[in-house]
């Protein structure tokens, strides 16, 4: 079965680069995060709505391979694919690609659903609200 791939376009701005004009490594994490946020939004999941209920997703684990350098003004595509969906976590495979198809970055991200609690309370993993789980299941 083919997994559905979400794609989000990003252009490299000067602020994304280091002194050598290539994308600073930490900014790939921002690109990946933005694509996941837009993917959720495309599914009708607005994170601010769930934050009002003190439910959020936090990145628990990152594996990232920086294959080639993206440069200032490059047009990129960031992909999102759900690899595994659990009751309280999601594992994503993501890539950052040049418009010509070259791969700059590959990553696997594990995000956990958490109850953010009130001030002073600890953040703890919880099962995803069924509304979110069902949407993610259909999108996989």
TrEMBL record:
<keyword id="KW-0378">Hydrolase</keyword>
<protein>
    <submittedName>
        <fullName>Tol-pal system-associated acyl-CoA thioesterase</fullName>
    </submittedName>
</protein>
<dbReference type="GO" id="GO:0047617">
    <property type="term" value="F:fatty acyl-CoA hydrolase activity"/>
</dbReference>
<comment type="similarity">
    <text>Belongs to the 4-hydroxybenzoyl-CoA thioesterase family.</text>
</comment>
<dbReference type="InterPro" id="IPR029069">
    <property type="entry name" value="HotDog_dom_sf"/>
</dbReference>
<dbReference type="Pfam" id="PF13279">
    <property type="entry name" value="4HBT_2"/>
</dbReference>
<dbReference type="InterPro" id="IPR014166">
    <property type="entry name" value="Tol-Pal_acyl-CoA_thioesterase"/>
</dbReference>
<dbReference type="InterPro" id="IPR050563">
    <property type="entry name" value="4-hydroxybenzoyl-CoA_TE"/>
</dbReference>
<dbReference type="InterPro" id="IPR006684">
    <property type="entry name" value="YbgC/YbaW"/>
</dbReference>
């Amino acid at each position: 079965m083919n997994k559905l791939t979400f794609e989000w376009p990003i252009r490299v701005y000067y602020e994304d680069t280091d002194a050598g004009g290539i994308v600073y490594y930490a900014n790939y994490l921002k690109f990946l995060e933005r694509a996941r946020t837009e993917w959720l939004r495309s599914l009708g999941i607005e994170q601010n709505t769930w934050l009002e209920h003190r439910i959020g997703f936090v990145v628990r684990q990152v594996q990232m391979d920086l294959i080639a350098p993206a440069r200032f003004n490059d047009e990129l595509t960031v992909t999102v694919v759900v690899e595994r969906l659990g009751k309280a976590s999601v594992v994503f495979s993501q890539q950052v690609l040049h418009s010509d198809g070259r791969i700059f970055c590959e990553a696997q991200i594990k995000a956990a659903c958490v109850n953010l609690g009130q001030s002073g309370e600890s953040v703890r993993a919880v099962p995803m609200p069924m509304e979110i789980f069902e949407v993610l299941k259909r999108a996989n």
